[in-house]
Each structure stands twice: as structure tokens, then as C-alpha cells.
Amino acid sequence: MAQRDSGPAPVRRILHIDMDAFYASVEQRDDPALRGRPVAVGGSRQRGVVAAASYEARRFGVRSAMPSVTARRKCPELVFVPPRFDVYRAVSAQIHAIFARYTPLIQPLSLDEAYLDVTHPLVDAPSATAIAEAIRAAIRAETGLTASAGVSYNKFLAKLASDYRKPDGLFVITPRMGPAFVESLPIEAFHGIGPATATRMRALGIRTGLDLRRQELALLARHFGKAATFYHGIARGRDDRPVDAERRRKSIGSERTFDRDIHDWAEAVAALDDLSGRVWQACAARGVGGRTVTVKIKYADFQQTGRARSLPAPVSAQAELLRVAQDLLRPGFPPDRGIRLLGVTLSNLQPADGDASPQFALALPV
């Protein structure tokens, strides 16, 4: 008996949900005195860096990753608050629990944004737009925060759409709109095309989505290698990447910028001890371990380097993480210039073995 044709696959319905100025909004929610004021989450010290900025601060040009002294110069009334990552993680868990009411296909990108595939939702809803509205309403009601949402038929366009009406907005890019929507966008606005790639594209005369669409795949491959197929597709509004619910975080790291440049080994070890402890606690909270340790070093002249070591088995204890980090840093001492920043990262992550995790919790001597 002939097999019946099930017909074409349904058009995917993808959401990108992005919290509005998440860290800063949580601080303004929890402290009424901060509402309506320009707020920066991060260190206010001379070597501090802005981790997040409220929309009031952004109007002055304050941005994340900006040195605190620059942010203060742009906005003298800026209020700095220290980050509370335990609170942000707890709120993020609330938000992801809301997502899970609508679909199991959730791909978190960070604490404050995620892709959702609602092609086959867990609720009876008339459209993906209705689901996005319901999610935004639930987030506002249950957390007191606002989220922006993008709705489209692929991840690339959903991401663009969520940025289009920020803050507290929703925008839909339909299959009919997709190819035309990207035509006039500057290359820098394309998610997946970073500053360095955009500079190379501009050198080739590619300044907009339409310019990119006019390029032959062979030319793109010659200049951009394996990424060419992705660029060729998104210029036409195409992106076949699935929402990957199994996607795991690739690394966990922590870094510290010093109030003054350090030269002394004892100071460096003390910093590594603190950083290793933060990384280890974050790994323990997520139930993961890792095999590759990386130490990041930024010098006083802003030159940056990194050293890494992959181990045959996951790091078994915080003391081992510290010991490997010290071994990686030691060849750089004594430094011929001051060290401005140190960072420790653990990657090649994998789940810890079971609840007991005897190896994961073992404390080895330094």
C-alpha cells in the first residue's frame, strides 16, 4: 500500500525573549530609590567595569563592558550598585519556569534571553504572537520586570525582531516580510556578524543586507570560510538552525580587574584563589565539572594573553583548579609590566557524577 504524503512541514514558529536591562531592572525593582535614575551594575572603582546599565543610563551613552571611569564621565549622576548574581539567577529560574509552560524546546543564551520553538506548543493558542504576549504578561505579573519578544520563522529573524521594539516591545517578522526586512539593515546589525567580520565585509563593499545578498556563495566562502553558508542564508532571511534544548554551557569563568597593577606573586596567587573559588562554586551550583583550565592575563598596556591546560579527567576539587591556574600563570613571573586583570575559566564541561559526587567534592592539598 502506498504511503500517504504528509505534506510540507509546518512553518516553524520561533520566539526570542530578551529581558530589558535585566540586571539593572532587578536592582531598580528591589530598591525603589533607584527607579527612574541612571543605574550601572558593576564596580565604581577606578578599574571597575559596567556589567549592565539601565535605560536611563544608556541615554547618556553608558554601555556594558565600559570602564567605570568612562561611564561616570558620560553620566555624572550615575549610581553604581554591586552585582547580585545569586538574585539574578533566581529570577532567571522564575522566567525559565514560565517558558516551560508553553514549550519544552527552550535554548537559553544567558540568564536574560532564550530562544523558544512554539511550533507545537503545550497550550492551545491561536498564534506564536499570542504565546509571546502571554509570556511577557506572565513575566511582568510574576517578576515585576519587562521583556521584549521577537516572533518569526527562524532564530536569526526572531533575534532581530526582539531588538526592534525594545524596551517592553513585541515585533513579528513573517515569512513574507523576512527577505525584505534584512535588505536595508546595516551589516553591523546582523546577529552573528561581529565587528571584525563587519569591517572585512565593508572592505569588500558589503554594507547592507542587500549588498550581502548580491554576493555569490563562492566569493563569501573565499573570504569567510565555513561561515559563508550562514551569511548567504541570512541575507535571504533563511536560517535552518534548530532551537537546541540540549545546548549546554561551554565554559564557566570569573575575572577581576585590579584597582592598581600588580607585580607580586603573592598578590597574584591571592587573586587566583578568589577567582578559582568563584568558578568552583558556580560549577557546583550547576552540577558540572570541566577538564580545561584557562588563565587570562591583561597587562597594564592592555595587551592580553591566555594560557590553557586540558587534563585527562575533570578537575576534582577547588584546590586542584587553583593549583593548575598557578602553574599556568607561573611562567609569566616576574612580569616585565604590571598585570591589570586576571581571569580563570573552566571549560570542556560535563555533568558531575551523581548526587554524591565524591570525586567532585574531594579537597586535595595544594
Automatic annotation (TrEMBL):
It catalyses: DNA(n) + a 2'-deoxyribonucleoside 5'-triphosphate = DNA(n+1) + diphosphate. Pfam families: IMS, IMS_C. Its cofactor is Mg(2+). Residues 14-194 form the UmuC domain. Keywords: Cytoplasm, DNA damage, DNA repair, DNA replication, DNA-binding, DNA-directed DNA polymerase, Magnesium, Metal-binding, Mutator protein, Nucleotidyltransferase, Transferase. Binds 2 magnesium ions per subunit. GO terms for biological process: DNA repair; DNA-templated DNA replication; error-prone translesion synthesis; SOS response. One of its GO terms (cellular component) is cytosol. Transmembrane segments: none annotated. It is found in: Cytoplasm. It is an enzyme of class 2 (transferase). Its EC number is 2.7.7.7. CDD domains: PolY_Pol_IV_kappa (cd03586). Mg(2+) binds at residues 18, 112. The record marks 23 as: Substrate discrimination. It comes from the Bacteria. The active site is at residue 113. Monomer. Belongs to the DNA polymerase type-Y family. Poorly processive, error-prone DNA polymerase involved in untargeted mutagenesis. Copies undamaged DNA at stalled replication forks, which arise in vivo from mismatched or misaligned primer ends. These misaligned primers can be extended by PolIV. Exhibits no 3'-5' exonuclease (proofreading) activity. May be involved in translesional synthesis, in conjunction with the beta clamp from PolIII. This is DNA polymerase IV. It comes from Gluconacetobacter johannae. The gene is dinB.
